[in-house]
Amino acid sequence: MSYYLSIILFTPLAGAFVLLLVNKENENAIRWIANVVAFLGFVVSVPLWFWFDPRGADFQFVERAAWIPSVGAEYFLGVDGLSTLLILLTTLMGTIAVLSSWTAITERVKEYYIFLLVLQTGMLGAFMSLDFLLFFLFWEVMLVPMYFLIGIWGSANRLYSAIKFFLYTLVGSVVMLLGILALYFAYHVQTGVYTFDVTQYQKAGFDAGLQWWVFLAFFLGFAIKVPMFPFHTWLPDAHTDAPTAGSVILAAVLLKMGTYGFLRFSLPILPDASHRFVPMMVVLSIIGIVYGALVALAQKDWKRLVAYSSVSHMALVMLGMFALNPVGITGSIVQQLNHGISTGALFLLVGIVYERRHTREISEYGGLSKVMPVYAAIFLIMTMSSIGLPTLNGFIGEFLILQGVFVADKRWAAFAASGIVLGAAYMLYLYQRTMFGKVENPKNERLLDLDNREFATFAPLLVLAVWIGIYPAPFLRRLESSVQHIVVRVSPQYAAKYAECNPTPTPDRVAASSNPAAKFLAAIPCDANGNPLPEKR
Amino acid sequence: MLLAIPLLPLLGFLINASFGRRISKAAAGAVACGAMLASFAIAVASVVRLASLEPDSRAIVSRAFTWISSGDFTADFTLRLDPLAAVMILVVTGIGTLIHVYSTAYMHEETAPEYARYFSYLNLFAAFMLLLVLGSNFLVMFVGWEGVGLCSYLLIGFWFEKRSASDAGKKAFIVNRIGDFGFVLGVLLAFVRFGTIDFQQIARAAAPMSPEAGFGTISIITLLLFVGATGKSAQIPLYVWLPDAMEGPTPVSALIHAATMVTAGVYMIGRNAVLFAHAPATLTVVAVIGTATALMAGTIALVQNDIKRVLAYSTVSQLGYMFLAMGVGAYAAGIFHLFTHAFFKALLFLGSGAVIHALGGEQDLRRMGGLKRDLPITYWTFLIGSIAIAGVPGFAGFFSKDEILFRTFASGHAALWTVGLLTALLTAIYMFRIVFLAFFGERPPEPVAPAHPEEEEPAAKGGHATGPTHLAHPTHLHDAPPAMALALIVLAIGSVLAGYASLGGRFERFLEPSFAPERVEEVADRGLELTLTAVSIAAALGGIAIAAYFFLKNRRAADRMAERFAGVRRLLQNKYYVDEIYNGAIVQPIRIVSENALWKAIDVRVIDGAVNGVGEAVTGASDILRRLQTGSVRAYAASLFLGVVLILGYYLWP
After folding, report:
1. What DSSP assignment string belongs to B153-208?
2. Quick check: A70 and A51 in contact, CB under 8 A?
3. Helix (H) or strand (E) holding A433
4. How many CA atoms lie within 13 A of A408 on its CB side?
């Protein structure tokens, strides 16, 4: 039990070692082993959903061991609600990515699966690490297999895209490392202890000037990963040229590293700087929302369109986060999961027609509804999920974000809500061009609909989309303590103000506070009558 | 029990969506109609139970589960049946059932999977529409609101192989999303202001306040909500999607784009009557927009040649009436017009569908004529619908339209009343233009080249708004088959009788709990009421007479008029060029800026240019530095020597 996280963490890596021992000619055996291992990785992580106690300690399943004692670095793992959900997303998407590659990858099969599995461990490690140096190690570990996945198994322009991805991210990480070291030494000055323990940093209260610089350093590392405007241009290239599984992992999990970084490190460790940078973050996010959507509208390449839609959606995630209030942050996290589900599915969908036709040009398609009805139905559901149709997952995140942002500043919300219109525009335009119309290209006349394996890659995503859309409570409950933990650090006024102006309870307030976490989360500023007020900056 | 009302059609949807490809057409149709009929039965039972309750406590609430709970934000998934919702669920399930039955015949030429797909969408629509009207808070309503939008999108584009159909579906969805943009912001502001999104709690909180004198928070909330309504209910400036929506199968036009979904905006205002009553500024906007829309759409309807487009503009116009009623505070009258309109407009659409069905897909009024003989059932029912919408006494439309006009005048909006009256006149003219052109006279021999090809309305160029179903051109015309005839006859009866529901103010009294504590003050001036009624009857009969003169007695006079006012005619035929203006002022600029400025200039040139520039600068610099690495020992020795000299010189320099 105490090694539970390590088991989740190293299952994929162990699988990669097993694969090393298999003869590379034996491709079917490799495929089977990789799929079994990936699925096993998912199965092993499922109890996390049940065993994680939403009312329990901040970090659970903690494992601590000395790693590099001379510098105070530890092997220190632990999860809260935020990382629990991201870990489950990772293991699920990893399984799907491996399964989706069965027929798509025919060359250097062994290396391919080894890289995928190593990547999996890297991502899981980043979400579990509570030691900053360990986090950085996993952060860098992810980079290498992804570089090879794009560079070897990618399409036409793969070398350019792979190098661009690698260098872009590397620049960010190097600066981030400087930030980590600055905290490390500053913490030593404060306490005389050398440690990379993130939970200690979160309690430290660093000097405001230092926070300012470190925030910028982290910002560069995380913002490139998210990616935020104007650091986003690696993403369309990397996505377009990556193999399907690479795109899926990239969109569903790797981008979340950036937002996770902000939530886990920037906000709680650097609360003052986080506040000071709100204007910048908000402006960049709003630009990202509108800009990403507009550029998506103009795309002629299917995958590139989905990639730009990611820029827009992730910008919304960032905006919700920097509303710096409980609802906004909750929405931001939910939307990260949703983005993983819907955008992951959208990349899978492109991958399927790409495998059949070897082109991503939208104009090459049209009328696929007729020849691939099941595919068209799934594409429709995922389109609707992506544009936030109620009863599907996207709506929950989008609405919570808008609500949080609206409370913070109405004007921001007005900009953010423009995504409602633009998102529908580019997705429906894509859907029309690919699915509707007559089948005019003879090459499309005999396209096969989804087979069982392909359907199996979508089934869990469909279930999740509907589940989160209709009954998000189990997800929201798991996030409460994480969000509270962040909010207490970054926006303590939400707790304080609630206490000082808690009015005579109106019936709905009483109802709200029967929820145990409501006391902490429910505090939006209110006037003397107990009427909620929008927060003035 | 309340939950079953939307769940039954949802079940029908799930069955047809999952197994539709494997079951016969008869089975698919039976599942869909059966689900609707069962839902109707439960709706009737629920309403009966509701009516048996004390007037003050007339509401049945059914709470399913807590949907979203985050921080102080809570949204329960709760359904609530009150008199207003009761009217709506009866319309949706009752007329919905009839249209399902009608569709079994209308769509019979589709293949089995397509047939099942059609019915699955139709069932899904009904489920979302019922959720919309039964939702007890803004968010549940929004689920239905968006859901019906999705179904509308899917059904408009049902014949998706046609470019015009898929374009129309997309347009409907995106234009509606513009409305949703306002709606969502309105809901958020309402939450910030009242701390809840529950309709009842908001109404209770707002009731004791005094109406806002200027333009305060409640005015902004209601105005934002109204933006949503203009999208869903096709009002200026967002009405442009509805005429194009006629690309969908005709029963869909009848159900979604006439009887139910497009009235959601009116319903939403009725649902929040208390809130709107506290924002007189917004109400004025609502009334003016409604009136302007009614008039504008009425004038366009005069000259359209596609039978469904005339009806579509007529719907826009009638919705304008409903908003006029809401805007002058006559909520019950507005909802009553919604109720009667559902009958006769569904009837008219289904009748036009029967005509189109009989003529093998023909929708152009100029190529119709003399259908009275061949299609007696269609003719008589269509005539009843036309009389009803025109406002002839004794038929449903008269009661509701007259009530709206009276309330408008009585509340001191004489100008709006005048425009409303003019629109009533137009309504009678364009409706009887259809009647006389389609059912009287002689059918012109095929094919008829339009008299003025250059004046051919742009919409007609895209072909006729039906799918592959009706391509054949039969020589023998057959009247509506039994399933279609049944729906026509039942709706025709409704188009007469529905109006009598309001006799003695019964309808208004039934709805009162929903609008309480907003009580419309009784206007007791019987003399004024009778005078106004006489005037509106005159308008209706006058309109019919004008139509009879121009389109029955003396068609040459119509042509002469058209020639004399060629400019006006062209303006109307081109629908005031609004589509062109939107395209030129909004759509194209966004496209051009996105593609050329944002993507190809900023993204590719500026940002990537900078990124690649850094890369190239590094490569360039290394290219120069590389030259130092010559590999020649002499060069290295020379630089070594130079270095030694420089270092020594530095230290030895005095």
Report:
1. HHHHTSSTTSHHHHHHHHHHHHHHHHHHHHHHHHHHHHHHHHS--BHHHHHHHHTT
2. no
3. helix A410-435
4. 26
List of long-range contacts for B550-556, beta carbons under 8 Å, 24+ apart: B550/B433, B551/B432, B551/B433, B551/B436, B551/B437, B551/B440, B552/B436, B552/B440, B552/B441, B555/B441
CA B630 to chain centre: 77
State the Cα angle at A100 between A98 and A102, rounded to 5°.
80
Q: What is the pLDDT of residue B509?
A: 85
Low-confidence ranges of chain A (pLDDT < 70): 1, 495-537
pTM, rounded to two decimals: 0.90
- Residue B372: how many CB atoms within 10 A of its CB? 17
Hey, which residues 33-72 in chain B have their CB within 8 Å of chain A?
65-72
- Cα separation of A322 and A308, whole Å? 21
Residue B84 is predicted with a pLDDT of 93
Burial A199-217 (b: 16+ CB within 10 A, else e): eebbeeebeeebbeebbbb
Q: Do A432 and B166 touch (CB under 8 A)?
A: yes
Name the residue type at position B6: P
A403 with B166: Cβ contact below 8 A: no
Positions of chain B with pLDDT under 50? 448-474, 518
d(CA B109, CA A52): 56
pLDDT of residue A513: 43
- Burial of B476 by CB count in 10 Å (0-12 exposed, 13-18 middle, 19+ buried)? exposed
- Could you give the CA distance from residue B94 to residue B129 in angstroms, rounded to a whole number? 13
- CA A497 – CA A73 distance, rounded (Å): 38
Q: What's residue B459's pLDDT?
A: 39
Task: State chain A's mean pLDDT as an integer.
Answer: 89
Q: To probe the interface with B, which of A165, A295, A426, A515 has the most B CB atoms within 10 Å?
A: A295
In the three-class reduction of DSSP (H, G, I as helix; E, B as strand; rest coil), residue B75 is classed as strand
Q: A230 to chain B: which residues are within 8 Å by CB?
A: 607
Its ipTM equals 0.89
Query: Does A417 contact B608 at a Cβ distance shorter than 8 Å?
Result: no
B433, containing H or E segment: helix B414-439
Class of residue B648 by CB neighbours under 10 A (exposed 0-12, middle 13-18, buried 19+)? exposed
Are B648 and B642 in contact, with CB atoms under 8 Å apart? Answer: no
Contact B248, B257 (CB under 8 A): yes
Average pLDDT over chain B, rounded to an integer: 89
Q: Which of A220, A223, A141, A234 is nearest to A180 (CA)?
A: A220
**Cα–Cα dist B248/B107, whole Å:** 12
Report the candidate in B201, B218, B193, B222 with the shortest Cα–Cα distance to residue A530: B193
Nearest partner of A68 among A113, A7, A149, A132, judged by Cα: A132
Q: Give B380→chain A minimum CA distance, Å.
A: 38
- Using one digit for the tens of pLDDT, what is the confidence trace for A302-346? 999 999 999 999 999 999 999 999 999 999 999 999 999 999 999
Cα A106 to chain center, whole Å? 29
Question: What is the reported pLDDT for B461?
Answer: 36
For residue B188, list chain A residues with Cβ-Cβ distance below 8 A. 402-403, 406, 413
Minimum distance, in Å, between the CA of residue A134 and any CA atom of chain B: 30
In 3-state terms, what secondary structure has residue B413? coil
Which H helix or E strand runs over B81? strand B73-81
Q: What are the CA-CA distances from residue A119 to residues A143, A254, B190 (Å)?
A: 8, 10, 46
User: What's the confidence (pLDDT) of residue A40?
Assistant: 96
Helix/strand/coil for B340: helix
Q: B392: which 2 tokens?
A: 């002839």
Q: How far apart are the first and last CA of chain A?
A: 46
Beta bridge partners of B77: B65
